[in-house]
Amino acid sequence: MNIALVGYGKMGKAIERIAQERGHDIVLKIATANRHEFTAENLQRADVVIEFTNPEVAKENVEICLKAGVPVVCGSTGWNEGLSHAEYTAVENKTAFLWASNFSVGVNLFFELNKQLARLMNDHGEYNVNVEETHHTQKKDAPSGTAITIAEGILDHLERKTRWTKETEEKPEDIAIVAHRIENIPGTHVVKYTSDIDDIEITHTAHNREGFAKGAVLAAEFVAGKQGVFTMKDVLGLNRMFEGK
Ligand SMILES: NC(=O)C1=CN([C@@H]2O[C@H](COP(=O)(O)OP(=O)(O)OC[C@H]3O[C@@H](n4cnc5c(N)ncnc54)[C@H](OP(=O)(O)O)[C@@H]3O)[C@@H](O)[C@H]2O)C=CC1
Ligand SMILES: O=C(O)C1=N[C@H](C(=O)O)C[C@H](O)C1
User: Fold this and answer.
1) Contact assessment for residue 71 and residue 1, using Cβ atoms and an 8 Å cutoff
2) Record's PROSITE patterns (predicted)?
3) How many CB atoms lie within 10 A of CB 134?
4) First-to-last CA distance in the chain?
C-alpha cells in the first residue's frame, strides 16, 4: 500500500518505521518546510493519507486530502469541533475518514472498560469521578484528546454527570479533567472514582509511541479502498464484540 504522511514529527516518523516493517511504501512526507508539495496531484500517488500535525492545521489538511478523494486516517487532537465537517466532506467526496483521539489498542480497550465502570456507578452515587492525564511538555492541546474521549464515555453512561470541565472547582454534575505536562511522558490517563470509604482507579500508561503508530497503520490498512466514516472500534472489531450485550 502507498501511504502519504502529512506531519512528519514524532508520530510521522514512528508511523513511517512501522508502515515500512509491514511492507508499505511511504510515497509522500509533508512537514512545514515542504508544504508546497502538499498538492492534490501528489496525493493521487497515495492509497491513504495518515495525518498527524497539530490542532491549528489539522482541519485544513484533512479537507485538502478528502477533497482530493484520498482516504484519511487522522490522529491530530484538539480540533474536535471540526470533525463533523470532515465526516461530511468524506461522504461528499466518496472517500473514507477515520479519526481517533488515540490509536493504541490498549487505550481502545481502556475506553470500553471506562464505559462499563461508568455504567456500574449509576447505582453507587457515593462515588465522584475525575480524569487525569499526563503528557510531554511539547504537547500543544490540553486536555488531551484521549482524556476528552474518556470523559465523553463517562457522560454517555453515568447519568449524574452532565459535562466535563478543566476547572478544579467543579460542580457535582461535572467531570473534572486535570492535565499535567512533564518532560518525555508519552501519555498516561487515569480515571479515578473516590468515596469516603475507598477509591477505584483505572490507569493506562503508554511506555512509548509504538502503540499509537501501530494502531494508525492498522487503521490505514482498514480504510484503504473504502468509503465512509469509521472509528477504531471498526478496525479492532469491537462493534461486533459488543453487539447485543
Ligand atoms: N491519536 C493518537 O493516537 C495520537 C495523537 N497525537 C497527536 O498527533 C499530533 C502530532 O503529534 P506529534 O507527532 O507528537 O507532533 P510533532 O510536533 O512532533 O509533529 C508535528 C508535525 O506536523 C508538521 N506540521 C506542522 N504544521 C504543518 C502544516 N501546516 N502542514 C504540514 N505539516 C505540518 C510539523 O512539521 P515541522 O516540524 O516542519 O513544523 C511536524 O512534522 C498532535 O495533535 C498529537 O496530539 C499524538 C500521539 C498519538
Ligand atoms: O500529543 C501526544 O503525544 C498524544 N496525544 C493524544 C491525545 O491528545 O490524547 C494521544 C496520546 O495520548 C499522545
Assistant:
1) no
2) DAPB
3) 19
4) 36
ipTM comes to: 0.99
- CB-CB contact of 193 with 127 (8 Å): yes
Q: Within 10 A of 90 (CB to CB), how many other CB atoms are there?
A: 26
Q: CB–CB of 219/1 below 8 Å?
A: no
> Nearest ligand to the C-alpha of residue 101?
1
**Count of Cβ atoms closer than 10 Å to residue 204 Cβ:** 23
Look at the alpha carbons of 1, 33, 183, 180 in this order and tell me if their dihedral is positive or negative.
negative
Label residue 3 exposed, middle or buried (CB < 10 Å: 0-12, 13-18, 19+). buried
Give the architecture-level CATH label for domain 2-103+209-242: 3-Layer(aba) Sandwich (3.40)
Residue with cell 481517533: 100
Q: Under CATH, domain 105-205 is a member of which superfamily? A: Dihydrodipicolinate Reductase; domain 2 (3.30.360.10)
Say whether pTM exceeds 0.95. yes
pLDDT in tens, 178-205: 999 999 999 999 999 999 999 999 999 9
Instruction: Please choose from 13, 132, 137, 139 the residue to mutate so as to test ligand 2's pocket, defined by most ligand atoms within 8 A of CB.
Output: 139
Q: What is the CA 152 to chain-centroid distance, rounded? A: 13
State the cell numbers at 93. Answer: 467526496
Q: Please, are residues 34 and 69 in contact by the beta-carbon 8 Å criterion?
A: no
